[in-house]
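A quick word before the example. In earlier lectures we treated sequence and structure as two separate objects. From today on, think of them as two lines of the same record. Here is Cupin 2 domain-containing protein written that way.
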Amino acid sequence: MEYYISNFSNVKKEEVKIKGSKGSFIQWLVTKDHGAHYAVRRFTLEPNGVIAPHVHKYQETVIILKGSTKVCVGREVKELHENDFIFIDSGVEHAFYNGMDPLEFICIIDYVDDMSIHPVDRSCI
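And the structure line, produced from the sequence above:
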């Protein structure tokens, strides 16, 4: 495929399935099915939404489009706001905790042999 054009409204929105997550949704915008060597995903979190602590082997870059969030990364808590971004290396535990306003971010990941996600049974905030 030489190119692909779409709109957020045309992409299936699914609940994030990581154990302990709530009010969080994912859309896979660009994937290997389009011929890409990476994936671009859009996440939306409702007020007080959570993507629970987890770890995986792929790297990711998260770009905040709307709202703000507390990100647990390793043993630290960072606050990210609109237009902020964070790179999270493979094997680093992380989680996202939303506040009272809707949150929207783009997440770009690489494809690795093991794409599994492993929940981590701890809270950092």
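Notice the following. Residues 11-112 form a domain with the Jelly Rolls fold (CATH 2.60.120.10). We will return to this example when we discuss secondary structure assignment.
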